Amino acid sequence: MRRRNLLGAGLLGLGGAAASFSNPGTQSSVSAPSISRNRRQLNMVTTWPKGLPGLGEAAERVAARISAMSEGFIEVKVFAAGELVPAFESFDAVANGSADIYHGADYYWTAKSPAYPFFTAVPFGMTAQEIMGWIDFGGGQALWDELSGDFGIKPIQGANTGHQMGGWFRKEINSLDDLVGLQMRIPGQGGDVLRALGGAAKSLPGGEIYQALQTGNIDATEWVGPWNDYSLGFYREAPYYYGPGFHEPGASLAVGINRKLWDSMSASEQAVVKAACESTNHTSLGEFTYQNAVYLDILTKEHGVQLRSFPEDVVKAMAEASRDVRAAAGKDGIEKRIYESFETALASMSNWANVSDGPYYAARELGRKR
Predict the structure, then answer these.
(1) Does the annotation place 164 within a ligand binding site?
(2) 3-state secondary structure of 171
(3) Is 222 annotated as a binding residue?
(4) pTM of the predicted model as reported, rounded to 2 decimal places
(5) In angstroms, rounded to a whole number, what is the distance separating the alpha carbons of residues 308 and 289?
């Protein structure tokens, strides 16, 4: 009888804990341990125009997956660029706590640190798979945490566009002379390379690019690739579409979280946010890869877009300038450690790519032409 009574008491205790878990916030009179969960209502600001395919959708996807994985206990409201803060003020808004999360490209924050582009894309740098490899397995995340932690932000990979295009140009680029004086929208280290070759680089948020191209304030622009570029209509103003995008071979996009908010989260809440970001990172790469192929056909077959490749002397000069630009971003302190870690990982993974990816693409193309 005593054993049965003890068993019954144990079951009552478990039932009280379960009841407390299924009804968050209620107080249980049962002395057994109770579990409570706090609801969070968070704001996400972005650097993307409202309704933008791919990039804007990635931000919405992160928010939706956080809500679904947390069973609604963490709700994230997404604000497009300009709705809560201007695109390029997203970082400061999260750092000072006026917003909770941002979704954007960390090379926009080069004024904060010249090392930020390494966590998005740098000229002749890492492909999408390689930057994931470095951040997740090569020590990149710890360095990113340290860099952003100084500004009160916790960074996580939140999307990847894959290989980008070189940009839209009003006139053909036939030699290095054609870059001299060229006014182009191109941020990050890609802009530094253009300046080194005699051009003028501007950093504009996505929502301002078309008007600048239309009014002649810029002669050329890069953005992402066929899918996103089509939606912003650049083909209507600049008929020459150059590739490949040596400046962004695999652009990683970031979710930045206010550090105090992050530290206040339980381990399970942090795991939910990480999982939502990681799954979106995976989904976006596949999505961009497929949709870029679809929209490249639309641009060339329905809108007469003319595909071009940069001349060999231009490519060579860009490659040479990019080495100096990358090195200049990592002169000392945390920036030097980031640069050295990046370059070491890039050299290692390039050796593998030269054995695997490059020869495979060449062999596949040879087979297609038979």
Answers:
(1) yes
(2) coil
(3) yes
(4) 0.88
(5) 20
